[in-house]
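Q: Could you fold this chain for me?
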Amino acid sequence: MVLGIENLAVVRLTIAEQKHDVFVKDYRNQRVVTLREVDTLHGRVEGTARRNFNDNRKHFIEGEDFFVRNSYEAKTEFGITAPNGLTLLTESGYLMLVKSFTDDLAWQVQRQLVKHYFRGKVSPKRNSLPYLDQLGKALREDAKLSKGLSLPNQLRSRAEALIKLQDQTGVDYSQQINMLFADADAQEAKQKETVIKAEQETKALANTPTGQASQALEWLRIEYTKQGEKLAHVHEDWLLVRSDLWKMWAGKHKLNLTMICRELHNQGIVEKHSESGRERYGIGKRINGKAYTFIWLKKDKLDWLTGTESQTN
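A: Sure. Below is the predicted structure, expressed as structure tokens.
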């Protein structure tokens, strides 16, 4: 049965007691179908028709059994998004392709397609191209409006555009709409899973010596910009950091400053001192008449120090 809706031509096929709408597509005065439509109508796994076509490509004649349109042509001529191009099968190409489909369903599909689609009569006023142009225009407009949105929201926006077009034309897009919303939910769940995983990895890293050392250096960078010599003092090739203030920060965050210093020493940043036969990371020094215990860090290992030093002096 051929259904006309404004400028739309749709062939409705009844296959295994189920209704399937196939949009009429004509190219060079020949009725054509896509490989994806073949998979859908025959109930095959997506990509089956493509694989069969590629395996037997030498037997098909371009311009007689099939046509190829590039991505731009597929979009502008048929409103179909095809990043790798679009293969269109004529009646002869379709029948050659499905020779290997011998199940009961395949016989039903072939009869329906040949009788009602490839050889069905459609009024010129019902040509599908204007409708498909309308569909393509709606989706292109939505792509402009949804630019910058997250992928899940882009998919939802596209579904809403189809709902609007469905209301305007009366064409049933429920399957595509449901697929878009399902894809949006799946993408959103995947993104949330990625965020949670990243947070877990960050948290795990923060509990390692390397992670704690990174936190300590970041605190030092920020606080030295604020406090200057109240926190640390530049001495020759070193930045001397008051251990009491650094230890206070570490204790507040339940971190072990000795372990942090050991890690920074292993990285060649913190100096270890010998005092009274003991090795220590902190050593006493008088600054402006006051005695403090300082942890010594190599200036050239702190790429942020030059800028902050000039600001505090």
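A (continued): The two ends are 86 Å apart (CA to CA).
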